[in-house]
Specification:
The protein is mainly α and 253 residues long. The chain is built from twelve helices and no strands.
Amino acid sequence: MATAADRAKGPARTSVWLGGKAARTPRADQPAGLSLEKITAATVRLLDSEGLSKFSMRRLASELGVTAMSVYWYVDTKDDLLELALDAVLGELSIPDLDDSGQWRGQLRQLASGYRAVLVQHPWVSRLIGEFLNIGPHAVAFSAAAQRVMRSTGLPLHGQAGGLSAVYQFVYGFGTVEGHFRDRCERAGMSQDAYFRQAMGTISEQPRLRETFEEAQNVREAGGGDTVEEMRERDFGFALDLLIAGIEAKRAG
């Protein structure tokens, strides 16, 4: 049995997806209807509603109406369960039809937009992606699709990893900030627009910050769009267009 201490000592050798740990079958004396799929789904719901910092096996067991030991029959550690939840939400990503390599621009946009949506809808994902090996079936399918699309761009082999990094590190950063902002607004009981207006009003009252943020506000307003969501959609689309243009330029070079 792998423990949390084992994971800390050898994180690159420990995963719920190794050694058949994710395929454990229930015992006869387990609560009726309890399954790994049900436990994982409840974990995702709790993480979405309460956040990563408040999640515990005791809280999960209470949500399911079972004992913590019943949950531990299916997973060795809380980290194992978090890893399962992470891969479950990556299953929300839509993988494009990859048969036509000439459509790589649209395919790349679809993958990038889907990745962003997962990061926004599940703010806890951004932290966990950096903590686990990401070798679950949905993570592997997404990675394979992204690599295949990047091969279709025509970039030289030595540049394809850099191309993937440029796109997906951008999406990771954009989606993480967007997801955390939306989560902060929801927990404050405010709309994104109301929170943004209040924050900008507070900043504008500070002499040392006023000029910098007035210039930033002018840039935002010049692009059109009245709401925070509209501004984000515009900025994300334009930034992705810039990255695709960069890939095209490097391919031509």
